Amino acid sequence: MASQLGAALTLDQLATDPHELLARLRSGEPVCWVPALDGWLVTRRDLCVQVMRDPSTFTVDDPRFSTAQVVGPSMLSLDGTEHRRHRDPFATALGHGQVRERFTERVNEEARRLVRDLSSRGRAEIRRDLAGPLAVAVVTAALDLPGVEVGTLLGWYETIVADVDLLSRGAPATGAGQEAVKEMGAHVRRSTASRPGLLAHARVGLSDSEVVSNAAVMMFGGIETSEGMTTSLFWHLLTNPAQLQMVAADKSLARQAIEESLRLEPAASRVDRYATRDIEFAGASIRAGDLVIVSLSAANRDPATFVDPDRFDLRRSNAHTHLAFAQGPHACIGIHLAKLETLAALIAVLDLWPGVRLDGEVDGPSGLVFRKPRALPVLWGKTDLSSP
Ligand code: HEM
User: Fold this and answer.
1) Residues of the chain below pLDDT 50
2) Separation of CA 4 from chain center
3) Residue to mutate, 220, 293, 327, 332, ligand 1, most ligand atoms under 8 Å from C-beta
4) What is the pLDDT of residue 139?
5) Based on the structure, what is the number of domains in the chain?
6) What predicted TM-score, i.e. pTM, was given to this entire model?
7) Residue 385 is assigned to a structural domain of this protein
């Protein structure tokens, strides 16, 4: 039975301006049936952690999971020992030390190149000109597929996302997504046969098709999210100019700005699970098979953990305890790479676009699952840029 608040929630409200509604749910009914989502929405931070840390009760392994229908079974759609078999080789290769050693220089160089190439223009749109291209370049570098250009990978990605999108809206997939996975598979096989690296390493414990599915999931997991993470960081700083000044004056604050931005607007606002059994959970009677949605957005503004939770505050000491990368067995394996990428973009902009500021009115982050500002036009320098 839906509560009044849950029953009244619309997808549009959740996509555009969800935070006040989520706050009301969190204090009144922290596990609430929401008909518009056809699932339970979990909004209190401690309960969100409980769900993500209990895969035997709340699993990802369900035939309704649309990503798996397109890319095949992968770490994203398995639990238990099978999940670990799929995940471990990738997670090890993306650990902190490995990422720092193998990617720091490349990612910094790519970010600087993108920013430098735009410098003489005096204006740019952060999402499309910087955050998006950087995210695709970083995933392309991480997968290290010989002969695969950034544009090719982006094409596969967009095709797969389009089919996953159709399936999650209840429509049949076109089949183009599976074709893209197949085409990607041919390159993955060539890579595992010819060079050492992430994919060859994964090949030791996984079959060819399993490596391909997990490689597709890396691509799927690393592009839209990182684009959002970087764009939202700039949005938070540009709409809080005093705090932008603080970071510009002391770049050691950049990491803190990233954590605080992730807290306020996690690029993936939710993760989905399916109940494996009937369970009474924080007053809710969840039935086996029910969809249980963990609202990372709501958890990250829980006042029980974060004082004055709606405020962007560079000095917040526990910002890093946000759940933007989830927790438990499915916690993001791209954390270090994503943070390196966003930091590289911020430092490059602060170094090369002096006086960077918003170019007109902008809307804040929006989106039902993946949240980001749709566009973030900026300008820099002291000259009058009003004429073209
Ligand atoms: C280079 C960038 C990234 C890569 C390669 C990447 C890759 C992945 C992969 C492969 C998983 C699945 C792990 C598993 O199921 O065991 C995952 C999970 C996840 N990632 Fe990332 N990711 C990246 C960036 C991000 C960013 C920027 C965010 C959000 C700020 C994010 C949020 C998440 C979340 C919330 C999950 C958990 C999904 C769930 O529990 O169902 N990721 N990531």
Assistant:
1) 384-388
2) 31
3) 332
4) 93
5) 1
6) 0.94
7) no
